[in-house]
From TrEMBL, chain A:
Keywords: DNA-binding, Sigma factor, Transcription, Transcription regulation. It comes from Neobacillus kokaensis. PANTHER family: RNA POLYMERASE ECF-TYPE SIGMA FACTO, RNA POLYMERASE SIGMA FACTOR SIGV. Residues 109-159 form the RNA polymerase sigma factor 70 region 4 type domain. Pfam families: Sigma70_r2, Sigma70_r4_2. The keyword DNA-binding applies. Residues 8-74 form the RNA polymerase sigma-70 region domain. The gene is sigX. CDD domains: Sigma70_r4. Transmembrane segments: none annotated. NCBIfam families: PRK09639.1-1, PRK09639.1-5, sigma70-ECF. This is RNA polymerase sigma factor.
Automatic annotation (TrEMBL), chain B:
This is Anti-sigma-X factor RsiX. Keywords: Membrane, Transmembrane, Transmembrane helix. The gene is rsiX. The chain crosses the membrane at residues 42-62. It comes from the Bacteria.
């Protein structure tokens, strides 16, 4: 096996995989995409200048792979329609909730569902900052943004998640109420 | 505990507790898949190979498609004629086209060459050469067409030597006929008994199917009848007597009878404007009957009428091996290719009945191509001259 691959695998594979998993919210897709990441890494490994850390470099590639994947998902028809129809700006996915999440407590499940409402940038920031424990500076490097953009995006996404968490809670409450009334 | 309100910090905390997702696959598998995918880095290779193949096919098949069937060629000729020929002549052409499709075709041919050309082989053309006739099936394998060629004879070669020698040069494709020669058999002459031996290899295909065996036997018979005066042929398979045919069983010998008393009609091969003069399968009792048959198309065999002269039915006599026919009063005759074909068909039919010369009386014109109608014309040696190289 390639020594470069071996090293990258040992150090970063699971992080990259987890990042892609939460981005596309599907195990099979994540498995395919992580391959694509390796292919792109090998193509441009010689050009890696060491300006950023290997880890942030890998994440930036993984993010591009994910974005390309979302673009491919939408056919040219959808893309054309999107130009005219601004109400469907959200990127939605129809995959069922993965098994790893369903065994968790309810609040975790809610958070996972809330992530669906975030757009690609917001999701990337959330994953990098909280799931991968990257610093603001590292996140900015991986995404190629300024630190302040990272901060505002992070703030907005947290707010968005909070909002949707509350609606989930409200729904849950009303369900319980209904059950009580019916009794 | 569930809450109705969360702080940023609590959300962050929840996010941090999201389950860690791991890739369960073996790194070796992942690497192997990688190298598989790496190879697919030239997505243009397959399409370009396909494109090259398509281009190749186009080059190979293109010219054939361009030639098309006989229809396309015909229409092309017509349109080009209309443009090039004066209106006056075009009017005449229209009349001719109404009369007969084949006539207009032959007229095209006429204009393309310098003047009407004869197609059979005559005594004065042979010189020191020898005439060999091959009977070739047409492209529907319906008629056998005698194609003759003049070959130069080198020391003491018999007709059989020449026949064998030039068999492989028969160019059926270029003539618009079916591929048949060289015959997959060995022809040997037994001088003692004056018998020709035909020996086919053990794996010969000539016995498969009624049409196949009939054609083989007919071609052998006709080839030998028109090139020699042999009476008998013995058949062998791989040196052993007899050839097995599916329908007729084992045949050991053929009796050759001279081909006689047929009428000559015209056959137009596809893609070809020059017709062949072809003897009918049927034979006739008298030359009058034969000439009557020449005035009608034979659609079942794909043959067209060859006799365009308005000959008087009564004034048809034979004197000193010469056929005397008389044109009707006011009959028209043009010095063109189709008329020449007609005249040659008459000569060949006369030859079928053992005649040597033909005289047309009362002819409105004096000359058809190279033939002087004011004198008796000799019948040809063999029909349908084609060159073999």
């Amino acid at each position: 096996m390639d020594s470069v691959f071996d090293e990258l695998y040992k150090k970063y594979h699971h992080d990259v995989f987890q990042f892609l998993f939460y981005m596309v919210r599907n195990r099979e897709q994540a498995e395919d995409l992580v391959q694509e990441v390796y292919i792109r890494v090998f193509k441009s490994y010689n050009r890696f200048e060491g300006k950023s850390s290997e880890k942030t470099w890998l994440f930036s590639i993984a993010r591009n792979v994910a974005i390309d994947y979302f673009r491919k998902q939408k056919g040219w028809k959808d893309r054309l329609m999107e130009k005219f129809d601004w109400s469907t700006n959200q990127l939605k996915d129809d995959y069922p909730i993965p098994e790893e999440i369903t065994v968790q407590k309810e609040e975790i499940q809610w958070v996972y569902k809330c992530l669906e409402y975030c757009n690609v940038d917001q999701r990337a920031v959330i994953i990098l900052r909280f799931l991968q424990d990257l610093s603001i500076a590292e996140t900015a490097q991986a995404l190629g943004w300024t630190e302040s953009k990272v901060k505002t995006t992070q703030h907005r996404s947290l707010k968005l998640i909070k909002k949707h968490m509350e609606t989930f809670y409200a729904k849950e409450e009303s369900n319980i109420e209904k059950v009580r009334v019916e009794r | 505990m569930k809450k109705s309100e969360w702080s940023d910090r609590e959300i962050e905390e929840l996010l941090r507790h999201m389950p860690k997702i791991q890739d369960h696959r073996d790194p070796r598998d992942i690497y192997q898949n990688l190298s598989l995918k790496k190879r697919k880095t030239f997505p243009w290779v397959l399409p370009s190979i396909a494109a090259a193949a398509a281009l190749f096919l186009l080059i190979v098949l293109g010219p054939k498609l361009m030639d098309g069937g006989p229809k396309t060629q015909y229409s092309f000729d017509q349109s080009s004629n209309k443009k090039s020929v004066e209106q006056n002549i075009a009017m005449k052409k229209k009349d001719a086209a109404q009369k007969d499709y084949s006539i207009s075709k032959a007229e095209n041919y006429d204009r393309m060459s310098e003047g009407p050309l004869k197609t059979a082989i005559y005594e004065d053309e042979i010189g020191s050469g020898k005439v060999i006739t091959y009977w070739v099936p047409d492209d529907q394998a319906q008629n056998l067409i005698p194609v003759s060629t003049i070959v130069q004879e080198s020391q003491n070669e018999s007709w059989l030597d020449l026949f064998n020698e030039h068999m492989s040069q028969v160019n059926e494709d270029a003539w618009g006929l079916s591929e048949y020669y060289p015959i997959n058999a060995e022809f040997k002459y037994d001088e003692k008994n004056q018998i020709l031996e035909v020996n086919v290899p053990a794996d010969h295909q000539y016995g498969q199917g009624a049409a196949n065996e009939l054609m083989f036997l007919n071609i052998i018979k006709k080839d030998i009848a028109s090139n020699s005066d042999l009476k008998k042929v013995k058949l062998f398979t791989d040196g052993k007597p007899g050839i097995e045919f599916g329908n007729t069983g084992i045949e050991t010998e053929l009796i050759i009878q001279p081909e006689k008393n047929h009428a000559y009609l015209l056959y137009y091969p596809n893609n070809n404007e020059t017709p062949y003069l072809v003897p009918t399968i049927e034979s006739f009792k008298t030359i009058k009957d034969a000439i009557a048959a020449m005035k009608k198309d034979d659609p079942t065999n794909g043959l067209r009428k060859s006799m365009l002269f308005e000959l008087s039915e009564k004034d048809m006599t034979i004197q000193d091996n010469t056929l005397h026919v008389t044109m009707e009063k006011n009959a028209k005759m043009k010095n063109d290719q189709i008329t020449l074909f007609s005249f040659e068909a008459l000569l060949l039919t006369a030859k079928e009945f053992g005649l040597e010369k033909v005289m047309i009386k009362n002819a409105p014109i004096k000359q058809i191509g190279p033939f002087d109608l004011s004198i008796e014309n000799k019948v040809p040696i063999a029909p349908n001259l084609r060159n073999i190289e």
